[in-house]
Fold this protein.
Amino acid sequence: MSVIKELKGGSLSKTVVLAADGQQWVRKYISTGQDREYGLVRWQSQLRKIQYLRERLPENILPVLGAGRDQSTYYYDIPYIENSDNLYEAIMNGVSYTDIADKVIKIIQMMASASLDSIPGSISVYLNEELIRPMQHAHAILEASDQFLSSPERAYLGDRLKNIAPQLEQLIQKYSNYSVPESITHGNFTLENAIWDYEKNSIILIDLYAETYCETILGDISQIYQSSKSGYEIVTELLSQSEYSVTEYPYHQLPKVLENFTQYFEQKISNEPWYNTELITLLTASQFTRMFPFKIVKDPRAGFLFMNHALDLLGAK
């Protein structure tokens, strides 16, 4: 058995393509000992969700071939789709954005149709944990340290976080007993977490995520907007190339094709009866706040840039 290449993995995992006896497959590793709460627990929840969704979306979910232990890691294996790109790469490489959007919408509609019992107030729990708490965390760091930011950046972000807090508390109260539509979901439906199979012109969902506070398809849509409307993947790449101000999100550097994809996708998906613009805005902002605890450890300035972008999405002054 040999490693053919290493694929992009999550922050706490490693993903490689292996080959033996003329066969190739993908193996996803996670440490048996390090960061078990954010690594192993999430890796296992992903494995369970693959099983669960494959029963309902067999054409869009790859089977798990096996799992096991390899020295200091656990792993599971799935088939390798050789002629493929993630959806972000496929759009940038010229695959019709309308074809991709139409297939994404079809998957979302199928997941939304598999409805679950809604839990009143579940969305308020999510928003408090993934939106308000990270903002409070960021504000506390700003008050305690000037290690990562300039004085003008600290003052600007501190004022915005302080000013938005009462508005967010009101929204939490608004949704305290709200029953958001719940269904099966991907759980982390960014454009990187789905691949385009060029041979079949179809979409395969990867890196599913099961640790959510409410199973709403609105969350999946917000993650698509995270990739397309906010260009998370390309912005992350840009940040690695040059210095930047955390108060200036590089909207002007986002590719036009992503804007076209977003406009087409949004126009069609917003016709669904369960589409809720206000909640999707809150959820999209939360995709950038919820990463703050991880970013502040590995890349603090990027964490504050994305926190500021969340404030932009929320209309903060």
Notes: The two ends are 56 Å apart (CA to CA).
